[in-house]
Amino acid sequence: MEAVLAGVRELLPVLREHAQDTEDRRALDPETVKALAETGFFRLLQPARFGGHEAHPLDFLTGVREIASACGSTGWVASVIGVHNWQLALFPDRAQQDVWGADTGTRMSSSYAPTGTITRVDGGYRVDGRWSFSSGCDHATWVLLGGIIPPGEDGTPADFRTFLLPATDYTIEDVWHTVGLRGTGSNDIVVSGAFVPEHRTLSFNDTARCVCPGQEQNPGPLYRIPYASIFSYAITTPIIGMATGAYRAHVDHTRGRVRASYVGVKAAEDPHSQVRVAEAAGDIDSAWFALQANMRELMDLATAGAKLPMPLRLRVRRDQVRGTELSIRAVDRLFENSGGRALAIGTPIQRFWRDAHSGRVHAINDPERALSMFGRGEFGLPLNDAMV
Protein backbone atom coordinates (compact mmCIF):
# COMPACT_ATOMS: atom_id res chain seq x y z
CA MET A 1 0.00 0.00 0.00
CA GLU A 2 3.05 2.25 0.00
CA ALA A 3 2.26 3.44 -3.53
CA VAL A 4 -1.17 4.65 -2.41
CA LEU A 5 0.20 6.42 0.65
CA ALA A 6 3.00 7.94 -1.41
CA GLY A 7 0.38 9.30 -3.80
CA VAL A 8 -1.59 10.74 -0.90
CA ARG A 9 1.51 12.45 0.49
CA GLU A 10 2.23 14.03 -2.87
CA LEU A 11 -1.19 15.70 -2.68
CA LEU A 12 -0.69 17.19 0.78
CA PRO A 13 0.88 20.51 -0.30
CA VAL A 14 -2.03 21.12 -2.67
CA LEU A 15 -4.61 20.19 -0.02
CA ARG A 16 -2.89 22.52 2.45
CA GLU A 17 -2.80 25.36 -0.06
CA HIS A 18 -6.49 24.96 -0.93
CA ALA A 19 -7.75 24.41 2.64
CA GLN A 20 -9.21 27.91 2.94
CA ASP A 21 -10.88 27.62 -0.46
CA THR A 22 -12.40 24.31 0.62
CA GLU A 23 -13.79 25.99 3.71
CA ASP A 24 -15.14 28.94 1.73
CA ARG A 25 -16.94 26.79 -0.84
CA ARG A 26 -18.39 24.60 1.99
CA ALA A 27 -17.58 21.46 0.04
CA LEU A 28 -14.63 19.66 -1.46
CA ASP A 29 -13.62 20.65 -4.96
CA PRO A 30 -14.50 17.82 -7.38
CA GLU A 31 -10.88 17.93 -8.56
CA THR A 32 -9.73 17.15 -5.03
CA VAL A 33 -11.98 14.10 -4.87
CA LYS A 34 -10.78 13.02 -8.30
CA ALA A 35 -7.14 13.38 -7.27
CA LEU A 36 -7.72 11.31 -4.11
CA ALA A 37 -9.51 8.65 -6.13
CA GLU A 38 -6.61 8.46 -8.57
CA THR A 39 -4.21 7.62 -5.75
CA GLY A 40 -6.31 4.54 -4.97
CA PHE A 41 -7.12 5.84 -1.49
CA PHE A 42 -10.87 5.14 -1.65
CA ARG A 43 -10.16 1.54 -2.66
CA LEU A 44 -8.03 0.72 0.37
CA LEU A 45 -10.86 -1.01 2.27
CA GLN A 46 -12.68 -2.24 -0.82
CA PRO A 47 -12.83 -5.97 -1.63
CA ALA A 48 -10.22 -7.21 -4.08
CA ARG A 49 -12.92 -8.82 -6.23
CA PHE A 50 -14.18 -5.30 -7.01
CA GLY A 51 -10.76 -3.83 -7.73
CA GLY A 52 -10.00 -2.91 -4.13
CA HIS A 53 -6.85 -3.39 -2.08
CA GLU A 54 -8.33 -5.10 1.01
CA ALA A 55 -5.58 -3.27 2.88
CA HIS A 56 -4.79 -3.38 6.57
CA PRO A 57 -6.99 -0.77 8.30
CA LEU A 58 -3.85 0.99 9.51
CA ASP A 59 -2.90 1.78 5.91
CA PHE A 60 -6.27 3.45 5.48
CA LEU A 61 -6.11 5.28 8.81
CA THR A 62 -2.54 6.44 8.16
CA GLY A 63 -3.73 7.99 4.91
CA VAL A 64 -6.65 9.64 6.71
CA ARG A 65 -4.34 11.14 9.31
CA GLU A 66 -2.04 12.53 6.62
CA ILE A 67 -4.91 14.07 4.64
CA ALA A 68 -6.52 15.62 7.73
CA SER A 69 -3.18 17.10 8.78
CA ALA A 70 -3.28 19.17 5.58
CA CYS A 71 -7.01 19.98 5.52
CA GLY A 72 -9.42 18.92 8.23
CA SER A 73 -12.50 18.94 6.01
CA THR A 74 -10.81 16.89 3.29
CA GLY A 75 -9.55 14.37 5.84
CA TRP A 76 -13.01 14.01 7.36
CA VAL A 77 -14.74 13.40 4.03
CA ALA A 78 -11.99 11.06 2.82
CA SER A 79 -12.36 8.97 5.97
CA VAL A 80 -16.12 8.63 6.07
CA ILE A 81 -16.45 8.07 2.33
CA GLY A 82 -13.57 5.60 2.35
CA VAL A 83 -14.88 3.52 5.24
CA HIS A 84 -18.20 2.96 3.47
CA ASN A 85 -16.52 0.60 1.01
CA TRP A 86 -15.67 -1.60 3.98
CA GLN A 87 -19.27 -1.59 5.21
CA LEU A 88 -20.73 -2.35 1.77
CA ALA A 89 -18.56 -5.47 1.69
CA LEU A 90 -20.68 -6.76 4.62
CA PHE A 91 -23.97 -6.41 2.72
CA PRO A 92 -25.46 -9.28 0.71
CA ASP A 93 -23.62 -9.84 -2.56
CA ARG A 94 -26.55 -8.57 -4.58
CA ALA A 95 -26.26 -5.15 -2.91
CA GLN A 96 -22.53 -5.06 -3.67
CA GLN A 97 -23.27 -5.85 -7.30
CA ASP A 98 -25.92 -3.10 -7.39
CA VAL A 99 -23.31 -0.51 -6.41
CA TRP A 100 -20.05 -1.78 -7.91
CA GLY A 101 -21.26 -4.01 -10.72
CA ALA A 102 -21.14 -1.26 -13.34
CA ASP A 103 -18.53 1.01 -11.73
CA THR A 104 -16.10 -0.14 -9.04
CA GLY A 105 -15.26 3.50 -8.32
CA THR A 106 -18.78 4.30 -7.07
CA ARG A 107 -18.83 6.24 -3.79
CA MET A 108 -21.35 6.36 -0.93
CA SER A 109 -22.11 8.93 1.75
CA SER A 110 -24.04 8.19 4.94
CA SER A 111 -26.20 9.37 7.81
CA TYR A 112 -26.78 6.72 10.46
CA ALA A 113 -28.98 8.42 13.07
CA PRO A 114 -32.40 6.71 12.69
CA THR A 115 -34.37 9.92 12.12
CA GLY A 116 -36.60 8.65 9.29
CA THR A 117 -39.58 6.31 9.14
CA ILE A 118 -39.25 2.70 8.01
CA THR A 119 -42.33 0.73 6.96
CA ARG A 120 -42.36 -2.99 6.15
CA VAL A 121 -43.71 -3.76 2.65
CA ASP A 122 -43.58 -6.79 0.39
CA GLY A 123 -39.99 -7.58 -0.51
CA GLY A 124 -38.43 -4.82 1.55
CA TYR A 125 -39.16 -1.45 3.14
CA ARG A 126 -40.60 1.96 2.43
CA VAL A 127 -38.28 4.73 3.58
CA ASP A 128 -39.34 8.32 4.33
CA GLY A 129 -37.75 11.23 6.18
CA ARG A 130 -34.77 13.49 6.55
CA TRP A 131 -31.25 12.53 7.57
CA SER A 132 -28.64 15.14 8.49
CA PHE A 133 -24.84 15.44 8.39
CA SER A 134 -24.17 13.37 5.25
CA SER A 135 -20.55 14.40 4.71
CA GLY A 136 -19.36 14.44 1.12
CA CYS A 137 -22.81 13.60 -0.24
CA ASP A 138 -22.26 15.79 -3.31
CA HIS A 139 -19.47 13.42 -4.35
CA ALA A 140 -21.47 10.20 -3.91
CA THR A 141 -24.17 8.48 -5.93
CA TRP A 142 -25.45 6.17 -3.17
CA VAL A 143 -26.21 6.75 0.50
CA LEU A 144 -26.26 4.59 3.65
CA LEU A 145 -29.06 5.61 6.03
CA GLY A 146 -29.80 4.37 9.52
CA GLY A 147 -33.33 3.34 10.40
CA ILE A 148 -35.32 1.30 12.89
CA ILE A 149 -37.63 -1.38 11.59
CA PRO A 150 -40.65 -1.52 13.93
CA PRO A 151 -41.74 -4.85 15.43
CA GLY A 152 -43.73 -7.03 13.04
CA GLU A 153 -47.28 -8.19 13.65
CA ASP A 154 -45.93 -11.75 13.68
CA GLY A 155 -43.77 -10.93 16.68
CA THR A 156 -40.62 -10.13 14.70
CA PRO A 157 -38.55 -7.83 16.96
CA ALA A 158 -37.54 -4.30 16.06
CA ASP A 159 -34.18 -3.98 14.34
CA PHE A 160 -31.73 -1.13 13.74
CA ARG A 161 -30.42 -1.39 10.19
CA THR A 162 -28.50 0.46 7.52
CA PHE A 163 -30.47 1.08 4.32
CA LEU A 164 -28.70 1.50 0.98
CA LEU A 165 -30.29 3.89 -1.54
CA PRO A 166 -29.23 5.19 -4.99
CA ALA A 167 -29.16 8.93 -5.72
CA THR A 168 -32.36 8.61 -7.76
CA ASP A 169 -34.20 7.85 -4.51
CA TYR A 170 -33.22 10.96 -2.55
CA THR A 171 -32.54 14.67 -2.77
CA ILE A 172 -29.80 16.72 -1.11
CA GLU A 173 -30.70 19.95 0.69
CA ASP A 174 -27.90 22.47 1.18
CA VAL A 175 -28.10 23.34 4.88
CA TRP A 176 -24.43 23.14 5.86
CA HIS A 177 -23.58 26.54 7.44
CA THR A 178 -21.29 25.84 10.40
CA VAL A 179 -18.34 27.15 12.40
CA GLY A 180 -16.13 24.12 11.70
CA LEU A 181 -15.63 21.35 9.18
CA ARG A 182 -17.22 23.85 6.82
CA GLY A 183 -15.70 22.20 3.76
CA THR A 184 -17.31 18.80 4.34
CA GLY A 185 -20.61 19.65 2.64
CA SER A 186 -22.44 17.62 5.29
CA ASN A 187 -25.91 18.36 3.96
CA ASP A 188 -29.31 16.77 4.54
CA ILE A 189 -30.64 13.72 2.69
CA VAL A 190 -34.39 13.80 2.06
CA VAL A 191 -36.28 10.64 1.08
CA SER A 192 -39.96 10.39 0.13
CA GLY A 193 -41.48 6.96 -0.26
CA ALA A 194 -38.42 5.14 -1.58
CA PHE A 195 -38.55 1.36 -1.81
CA VAL A 196 -35.47 -0.42 -0.42
CA PRO A 197 -35.33 -4.16 -1.16
CA GLU A 198 -34.40 -6.52 1.64
CA HIS A 199 -30.96 -7.23 0.18
CA ARG A 200 -29.99 -3.56 0.48
CA THR A 201 -30.25 -3.59 4.27
CA LEU A 202 -27.78 -4.64 6.95
CA SER A 203 -28.53 -5.21 10.63
CA PHE A 204 -26.33 -3.58 13.24
CA ASN A 205 -26.84 -6.70 15.32
CA ASP A 206 -25.05 -8.69 12.61
CA THR A 207 -22.17 -6.21 12.49
CA ALA A 208 -21.85 -6.41 16.28
CA ARG A 209 -21.68 -10.21 16.09
CA CYS A 210 -19.17 -9.93 13.20
CA VAL A 211 -21.36 -12.31 11.21
CA CYS A 212 -22.66 -10.62 8.06
CA PRO A 213 -23.99 -11.82 4.70
CA GLY A 214 -21.14 -10.33 2.69
CA GLN A 215 -18.53 -12.47 4.42
CA GLU A 216 -19.54 -15.36 2.19
CA GLN A 217 -18.01 -13.57 -0.80
CA ASN A 218 -15.50 -11.51 1.21
CA PRO A 219 -14.04 -13.97 3.73
CA GLY A 220 -10.81 -12.06 4.43
CA PRO A 221 -9.88 -10.96 7.96
CA LEU A 222 -10.55 -7.31 7.13
CA TYR A 223 -14.29 -8.08 7.02
CA ARG A 224 -14.36 -10.02 10.29
CA ILE A 225 -13.66 -7.15 12.66
CA PRO A 226 -16.38 -5.14 14.43
CA TYR A 227 -18.16 -2.27 12.71
CA ALA A 228 -17.83 -0.22 15.89
CA SER A 229 -14.03 -0.59 15.83
CA ILE A 230 -13.60 0.42 12.20
CA PHE A 231 -16.19 3.18 12.08
CA SER A 232 -15.25 4.80 15.39
CA TYR A 233 -11.59 5.01 14.38
CA ALA A 234 -12.65 6.47 11.03
CA ILE A 235 -14.06 9.37 13.05
CA THR A 236 -11.28 9.75 15.61
CA THR A 237 -8.39 9.48 13.14
CA PRO A 238 -9.25 12.68 11.23
CA ILE A 239 -9.28 14.51 14.56
CA ILE A 240 -5.84 13.11 15.40
CA GLY A 241 -4.82 14.32 11.93
CA MET A 242 -6.18 17.80 12.61
CA ALA A 243 -4.22 17.91 15.87
CA THR A 244 -1.12 16.82 13.94
CA GLY A 245 -1.68 19.61 11.41
CA ALA A 246 -2.24 22.14 14.18
CA TYR A 247 0.98 21.00 15.85
CA ARG A 248 3.04 21.44 12.70
CA ALA A 249 1.46 24.82 11.98
CA HIS A 250 2.04 25.95 15.57
CA VAL A 251 5.71 24.95 15.58
CA ASP A 252 6.31 26.79 12.30
CA HIS A 253 4.39 29.82 13.58
CA THR A 254 6.21 29.92 16.92
CA ARG A 255 9.71 29.68 15.49
CA GLY A 256 9.43 33.18 14.08
CA ARG A 257 7.19 34.75 16.68
CA VAL A 258 8.26 37.36 19.24
CA ARG A 259 6.15 37.56 22.40
CA ALA A 260 4.69 41.05 22.87
CA SER A 261 4.56 40.64 26.65
CA TYR A 262 8.30 39.91 26.83
CA VAL A 263 10.13 42.54 24.80
CA GLY A 264 12.58 40.98 22.38
CA VAL A 265 12.02 37.43 23.60
CA LYS A 266 11.33 34.87 20.92
CA ALA A 267 8.36 32.68 21.70
CA ALA A 268 10.39 29.59 20.89
CA GLU A 269 12.78 30.46 23.73
CA ASP A 270 9.98 30.74 26.28
CA PRO A 271 10.15 27.62 28.49
CA HIS A 272 6.38 27.69 28.95
CA SER A 273 5.91 27.47 25.18
CA GLN A 274 8.34 24.58 25.09
CA VAL A 275 6.39 22.73 27.79
CA ARG A 276 3.08 23.23 25.98
CA VAL A 277 4.54 21.88 22.75
CA ALA A 278 5.91 18.84 24.57
CA GLU A 279 2.54 18.18 26.24
CA ALA A 280 0.66 18.51 22.96
CA ALA A 281 3.09 16.22 21.15
CA GLY A 282 2.76 13.64 23.92
CA ASP A 283 -1.05 13.70 23.74
CA ILE A 284 -1.09 13.29 19.96
CA ASP A 285 1.41 10.44 20.10
CA SER A 286 -0.53 8.70 22.86
CA ALA A 287 -3.75 8.88 20.85
CA TRP A 288 -2.11 7.52 17.71
CA PHE A 289 0.00 4.81 19.36
CA ALA A 290 -3.03 3.36 21.19
CA LEU A 291 -5.04 3.32 17.97
CA GLN A 292 -2.24 1.53 16.13
CA ALA A 293 -1.75 -1.09 18.84
CA ASN A 294 -5.46 -1.87 19.07
CA MET A 295 -6.01 -2.15 15.34
CA ARG A 296 -2.96 -4.38 14.92
CA GLU A 297 -4.23 -6.70 17.66
CA LEU A 298 -7.71 -6.87 16.11
CA MET A 299 -6.31 -7.71 12.68
CA ASP A 300 -3.80 -10.23 14.04
CA LEU A 301 -6.59 -12.12 15.77
CA ALA A 302 -8.89 -11.93 12.76
CA THR A 303 -6.09 -13.16 10.49
CA ALA A 304 -5.50 -16.10 12.83
CA GLY A 305 -9.21 -16.93 12.76
CA ALA A 306 -9.45 -16.34 16.50
CA LYS A 307 -12.40 -14.90 18.37
CA LEU A 308 -12.15 -11.18 19.13
CA PRO A 309 -12.42 -10.95 22.92
CA MET A 310 -14.86 -8.48 24.40
CA PRO A 311 -12.21 -6.83 26.64
CA LEU A 312 -10.26 -5.90 23.48
CA ARG A 313 -13.35 -4.54 21.76
CA LEU A 314 -14.17 -2.47 24.83
CA ARG A 315 -10.60 -1.20 24.99
CA VAL A 316 -10.85 -0.13 21.34
CA ARG A 317 -13.85 2.07 22.12
CA ARG A 318 -12.26 3.34 25.34
CA ASP A 319 -9.09 4.37 23.54
CA GLN A 320 -11.08 5.77 20.63
CA VAL A 321 -12.93 8.34 22.74
CA ARG A 322 -9.78 8.99 24.76
CA GLY A 323 -7.90 9.54 21.49
CA THR A 324 -10.38 12.22 20.54
CA GLU A 325 -10.10 13.82 23.98
CA LEU A 326 -6.30 13.82 23.86
CA SER A 327 -6.31 15.36 20.39
CA ILE A 328 -8.71 18.10 21.44
CA ARG A 329 -6.59 18.82 24.50
CA ALA A 330 -3.50 19.11 22.29
CA VAL A 331 -5.22 21.47 19.85
CA ASP A 332 -6.44 23.63 22.73
CA ARG A 333 -2.95 23.93 24.21
CA LEU A 334 -1.48 24.86 20.86
CA PHE A 335 -4.19 27.40 20.10
CA GLU A 336 -3.86 29.03 23.50
CA ASN A 337 -0.13 29.34 22.98
CA SER A 338 -0.30 30.82 19.47
CA GLY A 339 -1.04 34.47 20.21
CA GLY A 340 -3.52 36.88 18.66
CA ARG A 341 -2.21 36.62 15.10
CA ALA A 342 -3.40 33.02 14.96
CA LEU A 343 -6.99 34.32 15.10
CA ALA A 344 -6.86 35.74 11.58
CA ILE A 345 -9.13 34.16 8.99
CA GLY A 346 -7.05 31.92 6.75
CA THR A 347 -4.51 30.89 9.36
CA PRO A 348 -4.35 27.11 9.74
CA ILE A 349 -4.22 26.98 13.55
CA GLN A 350 -7.65 28.50 14.14
CA ARG A 351 -9.13 26.43 11.31
CA PHE A 352 -7.76 23.19 12.79
CA TRP A 353 -9.06 24.29 16.20
CA ARG A 354 -12.59 24.83 14.84
CA ASP A 355 -12.52 21.67 12.73
CA ALA A 356 -11.32 19.45 15.56
CA HIS A 357 -13.97 20.73 17.97
CA SER A 358 -16.61 20.23 15.30
CA GLY A 359 -15.51 16.62 14.81
CA ARG A 360 -15.60 16.13 18.56
CA VAL A 361 -19.38 16.56 18.70
CA HIS A 362 -19.98 13.49 16.51
CA ALA A 363 -22.05 10.99 18.52
CA ILE A 364 -19.37 8.28 18.34
CA ASN A 365 -17.10 10.57 20.38
CA ASP A 366 -19.39 10.72 23.42
CA PRO A 367 -16.95 9.61 26.13
CA GLU A 368 -19.54 8.67 28.72
CA ARG A 369 -21.14 5.99 26.56
CA ALA A 370 -17.89 4.29 25.60
CA LEU A 371 -16.26 4.61 29.01
CA SER A 372 -19.37 3.33 30.76
CA MET A 373 -19.33 0.27 28.50
CA PHE A 374 -15.70 -0.35 29.40
CA GLY A 375 -16.49 -0.02 33.11
CA ARG A 376 -19.43 -2.42 32.86
CA GLY A 377 -17.16 -4.93 31.18
CA GLU A 378 -14.53 -4.59 33.90
CA PHE A 379 -17.18 -5.15 36.59
CA GLY A 380 -18.63 -8.17 34.80
CA LEU A 381 -21.98 -6.52 34.09
CA PRO A 382 -24.01 -7.40 30.96
CA LEU A 383 -23.57 -5.36 27.77
CA ASN A 384 -26.29 -4.79 25.19
CA ASP A 385 -24.80 -2.05 22.99
CA ALA A 386 -24.18 -2.79 19.30
CA MET A 387 -21.50 -0.11 19.07
CA VAL A 388 -18.73 -2.16 20.64
UniProtKB/TrEMBL annotation:
A GO molecular-function annotation: monooxygenase activity
Domain Acyl-CoA dehydrogenase C-terminal: 235-366
Family matches, as InterPro entries: Acyl-CoA_dehydrogenase, Acyl-CoA_DH_C, Acyl-CoA_Oxase/DH_mid-dom_sf, AcylCo_DH-like_C, AcylCoA_DH/ox_N, AcylCoA_DH/ox_N_sf, AcylCoA_DH/oxidase_NM_dom_sf, HsaA
Keywords tagged on the record: Monooxygenase, Oxidoreductase
The Acyl-CoA dehydrogenase/oxidase N-terminal domain, residue ranges: 15-100
Coiled coil stretches, renumbered: none
NCBIfam families hit by this protein: monooxsub_HsaA (NF045629)
Family classification: Belongs to the HpaH/HsaA monooxygenase family.
Protein's name according to its UniProt entry: Flavin-dependent monooxygenase
